[in-house]
TrEMBL record, chains A, B:
GO molecular function, one term: nucleic acid binding
Pfam families: Alba
Entries under Gene3D superfamilies matching the protein: Alba-like domain
Species in which this protein is naturally found: Thermofilum adornatum
Protein name (Swiss-Prot/TrEMBL): DNA/RNA-binding protein Alba-like domain-containing protein
Domain of life of the organism encoding this protein: Archaea
Amino acid sequence: MSQFVHEIVVGEKHEGSYTLELINMLGKGAQRVIVKAHGRNISKAVYVTESVRRLTGDKIGYGKIKIYSTEVGELKEEKSVPVIEIEVINLGVKPQS
Amino acid sequence: MSQFVHEIVVGEKHEGSYTLELINMLGKGAQRVIVKAHGRNISKAVYVTESVRRLTGDKIGYGKIKIYSTEVGELKEEKSVPVIEIEVINLGVKPQS
């Protein structure tokens, strides 16, 4: 068991890839995982955490959920992009065989 | 000023339409507005609340942010779809002229 805060950044890969990554982290004993996404990937992050909740039989809960913005792009051409950080709390996810 | 909880459901319309709706509600004195979205519209909801935060000069804050799933579709063909509910708190948005 680790008290270290793990992070998954949900990007362009398929949803299932992040779902598996999150289940594996929790199954290995991570107590908290921050699932983070920018812009159009925010919906995907929520699909991922809800899939993991269903697949593990409600063995995760939500901690703090943060919304804020960050600047991306070239100097003087920065664009503000929203970010979500979802704190996923391990309520007893079993190790995957 | 109203203590009633207002709700905006972010759907298929353009982001700007919901941004305007939210600014108007807050400008008219709504103390709290729940911004709700399903599935692929979740990202759009976060774009909307962050746009309103910027446009109003940080005159909104976030209250409780909830994530859960709901079943949609025909009987025996239901599909689970994630939902977000973002509680937006009015920190002094001025009425729009």
